[in-house]
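Q: Give me a protein?
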Amino acid sequence: MYRTKTADMIGEECVGERVTLAGWIENIRDHGGVSFIDLRDYYGVVQVVMRDTSLLKGLSREDCVSVTGEIEHRDEDTYNPKIPAGTVELNCTSVEVLGKVKEPLPFEIITSKETREDVRLKYRFLDLRNRKVKDAVIFRAEVIRFLRSEMENMGFLEVQTPILCASSPEGARDYIVPSRRWKGKFYALPQAPQQYKQLLMISGIDKYFQIAPCFRDEDARADRSPGEFYQLDFEMAFATQEDVFAVGEKVLYDVFKKFAPEKEVTPLPFPVISYERAMLEFGTDKPDLRNPLRIIDLSEFFSRCTFKPFIGRTVRAIVIHGKMSKGFHEKMLDFAQSIGMPGLGYLEVGEDLSFKGPIDKFIPENMKGELISTADLAADDTIFFIADSASKAPVLAGKIRTELGERLNLIEQNAFRFVFVNDFPMYEEDENGKPAFTHNPFSMPQGGLEALNGRNPYDILAYQYDIVCNGVELSSGAVRNHDLDIMKRAFEIAGYDEDELKEKFGALYTAFKFGAPPHAGMAPGIDRLIMLLRGEENIREVIAFPMSASGQDLMCGAPSEVTEKQLREVHIKVR
C-alpha cells in the first residue's frame, strides 16, 4: 500500500519500472521548472525528480511521504557516487503525505551529531534519522547477533534471569521497586545476574549465557551509562580460571577481528598479568598495552641516597629514550602539579652516561652505575621520578606514564591490545579500618578456608580477574565460591554474621548445602565493547535511547513525579 520497494532495491536494473517508495524528505531543491527531493528510508537515499512542480506544493523537509513513478537514468553529469542509487532517479507522478512536519525542526538531521547533547537526547527520534547515529544502532544489533551465535556454537544455553529480584550488597546502589502486595517491602533491579547464574550452575545447567540488562544507581562517565547497561554474561560449571579465559578471549578476539578488520588485535592467547604487577608496571589495574612505557620501582635504591623527599617513600620511575626540551619538562611539571604532585623529579643521561638534573647531587657516585643498570639507562635517556605514599605513588606514576605516552605520541594506533589482570586482593580496608570485599564477594579465595582462617585478610588473593582493552575494563569475572563453610568465613571477615548471610543471600546459602559444583564465569560489557569498536569517545553514542549524563530521560521525562494514588497503592509517602 505504501511502498513496493525500498531504497536499497533501486538500481539500474530497475530502469523503466514503476515503483512506489516511502520515507522522509531529506532535502528539497527547487530549480523552477523542475524540482528534486532526496527521499531517505531505513535502507538508503533515492533522488526523486518532480517535473510537475505542483507535486512539491506544501512539502517540507522531514515530511514522511509515499511517492510513485518510473525509475529513469540520471544525466551522466549528475551521477552521485556517494549513494548506491546514484545513477538513477524516480520520475514522480504522484505523492502522498503520510506524516506532516508541523513545527520547525530543532536541528538539521544531517548535522545532528554537532548539536548540543541535551537537545539531541530530547529529540532522539529525530537524531536517529541521522545515518551515522542509526548506523551505530544497526552495528550494535549485528554485534549482539554475532555474540549470540558464538556462545551457542560453544554449547552455551541462553537463559533469561529475573529483573525483579531481592536487594543485595554487590558494590553499587540498587534501584528499588516498592511492592503493592507486600506492604513495606521492596524488589530491586539486578546489578548483575550474579546469584541466579550461580544457582543455574547448581541446578545442573552446564554452560549459561545471556545478553543481560544490569541496573546500578551510579553517576555517568564517558565510558559508563547511568542507570543501566548490558553485558554478555556467561557462567560454566566444573570450570577453572583458565577455562573461562579460553572462552572469553575467543569471543572477544573473534568479535574484534570481524567488526574491526582493519585494526590489529592481540593474538591468542591474551597475556595475563597479576594485579600487583599491573599496579607496579602501569600504575593502574586497567593497563593500556599500546603505551610502551613501563614503570619501575626505585624505593629501595633511594632509601640509600641522601635525597630526603624520597627517603621512606615509595618511588616509581619512568624511562624515556630521548632528550626532553626545557619546555617539555615545564609542561610535565604543570601536569604533575595538576594531579596533586608537589613536583616531578628527573635526570638526563649524557653521552658519557653522566647525569644532569636536580636530583643528581643526591645520588652517591658509587651508586650511579647501579641506577644505570637497574633502570637500563642509555645515553640521551631521560628518567622521571614519582614519590609518594605506598597507595598514591603507583596511581600518580600511572597518570604520568599515560601523559608521557600521549605527549610523545607513543600510543600504538589502529590496534586493540587485550590483557587479563588477575590475582586481585580479596579484601581491602574500608573507611572504618575494617576488611571489606575488594570486588565480588562471591569470589573463591585462593587457599580456600585454610587461607581465611590462617592469614592476614589483606594478604589473601581472590580468583578474580578482569579483561582490559586499550586501558578500558571490558569485563570482570571470577571463580566462584561454591562451599558453604568458605562462604560463611569469607563474609564473617567482612563483618557479616550467619544470620545476615541467610537473610541477604538465602538462596545461595541453602543451595550450597546440596552439592554445588565448582563454577566460574565473566561478563564483558556490551556497551563499552561497541564503543571501542566504533571508535566513540562517549558511550551514549552506541545506545539507542541513552540517559543524559545527569541520569535523565530527556525525551520521555524520567524520572518523573507520580500521583498520590500511585504512592498509596505501594504504601509510600514522600518525605
